Amino acid sequence: MEKEDLSNIMRQHPFLAGLSFENMQTLIGCASNVRFTEGNQIIREGEVANTFYLVRTGRVALEIELPGRGHIRVQTVGPGEILGWSWLISPYRWHFSGVAVAETRAIALDGECLRGKCESDPQFGYEMLKRLAVVMEQRLDATQMQLLDMYGTAPAGVRA
Amino acid sequence: MRDETAHHEAALADPMLTHPVAIRRIVWENDDTFTLTLDTSGLNGGLTFLPGQFNMLYVFGVGESAISISSDPARSATLDHTIHRVGTVTTALAQLKRGDVIGIRGPYGSSWPVSAAEGKDVCIVSGGIGLAPLRPVIYSMVRQRQKYRRIIVLYGGRSPLDLLYRVELERWANESDVETLVTVDRGDSSWKGHIGVVTSLFNYIKLDARDTVAYVCGPEIMMKFSVDELERRGVPVEQVYVSMERNMKCAVGFCGHCQMGPTFICKDGPVYPLGRVRHLMDMKEL
Question: Residue range B148-170: average pLDDT?
């Protein structure tokens, strides 16, 4: 795919909304267009995290393996969302596995390439970090809500 | 508004009078939630209600519980109540069978202002059993589908097995152009749908915020996060409605059991414009 086509596709992704032309040019050198069919394992828990995905269509389920209980699905990532930030954080290993549960198209960004550009261009690196921090905060809020098991029981005082 | 007042007055005509009604059908929605269909045809030909209202259901010798009506408001000869088995009365209700008789009084409380959404987009956000009091809203809107623009239903549950009304949700989506997004907090490999909290579903819809009316019902913490999300997306606070829950006893504002700050949920609620209770949702131990 031509770089110009890829750039147009990337601009439509909410994670990159409003990104400057210069930063987009920096990013595009690490990008490629990828497609996964249902059932494809995209990332595997414990393996080296060297890719960052911007999901365009489809759905990816994040799983953790619990000894004796198999794989538990804890979250899905869909269109307009991102998959994985372990490429940024040492020791660069996936904490989850990711499986496509529907045909999925995404932009894959090479993690090593991105880290290099973040190091050599701090303005670009800070821009990436700010955007990732927003996603991390949303995920943290969501995790807190999930941990509350709020649908499990009625609050005290409304049990009759 | 006139309808709402008339209904409220009808309930108040003899607010403490319980009527015997027979259970016509029992459907278990999941392990601890079931829907009772009550035969109300003997009560002057039926019991009319507005979406969002509740009845007091009485198990003789055990006690009463306030339960939202979950059926189609156009149908008054039978009424559905979807019940979460969590306490003494609801456990007793769960043990009844078809043909058994219970007591009913009501309907009580305020209703979802369905007409406020005419000509606008509708965003229904619900979690767990919070879908039950909103089901009559969906029935009403689907019946007059042309009066509304987009109808979006965002629904979250604990797991796929805990989801309510799955067949209906699918039917509304397929036959009545209702944009239905369902998510669960956790799933196994057989679940191909969304996993995550209900607010994560906002990422997949584009709201025309100024022209959207939102109805929110579920656990209070879920409603708090949901109204925050609606606010973040620009839906005006006066176009958001929530349904509050407290333990109700008398259902007519006498006993004070359901007092929340300056308001009695049984009488002034359970459905409120968000602006009226927003500050109360942030108060601890209220």
Answer: 94
Q: Average pLDDT for residues A47-69, to the nearest whole number?
A: 91
Token output for A110: 């090479």
Q: Find residues 43-102 of chain A whose CB sits inside 8 Å of chain B.
A: 59, 61-63, 70-76, 78-81, 101-102
Q: Which of B 72-101 lie inside 8 A of A, CB atoms?
A: 84, 86-90
- Tell me whether B278 touches chain A (CB under 8 Å): no
What is the rounded CA–CA span in Å between residue B39 and residue B79? 7
CA distance A119 to A125: 7
d(CA B267, CA B168): 31
CA angle, A76 then A81 then A84, to 5°: 75
d(CA A84, CA A48): 12
Q: What structural domains and CATH numbers belong to chain B?
A: 2-108 (2.40.30.10), 114-243 (3.40.50.80)
pLDDT band of residue B45 (cuts 50, 70, 90) is confident
What number is the ipTM of this complex?
Answer: 0.83
Say if B269 is an interface residue toward chain A (CB within 8 Å).
no
* CA B231 to each of CA A18, B151, B237, B258, B281: distance values in angstroms, whole numbers, following the listed order: 22, 19, 7, 27, 15
Q: What integer pLDDT is reported at residue A157 of this predicted model?
A: 43
* Long-range Cβ pairs for the range A11-20 (8 Å, 24+): A12/A56, A13/A54, A13/A56, A13/A80, A13/A107, A14/A80, A14/A81, A15/A54, A15/A80, A15/A81, A15/A82, A15/A131, A15/A135, A16/A54, A16/A131, A19/A127, A20/A127
Domains of chain A: 3-145 (2.60.120.10)
A107 vs A31: CA distance, rounded Å? 6
B89 pairs with which residues across the strands? none
What's the CA angle centered on B226, arms B204 and B213, to 5 degrees?
80
* Residue A129 CB neighbour total at 10 angstroms: 14
DSSP run (H or E) holding B68: strand B63-68
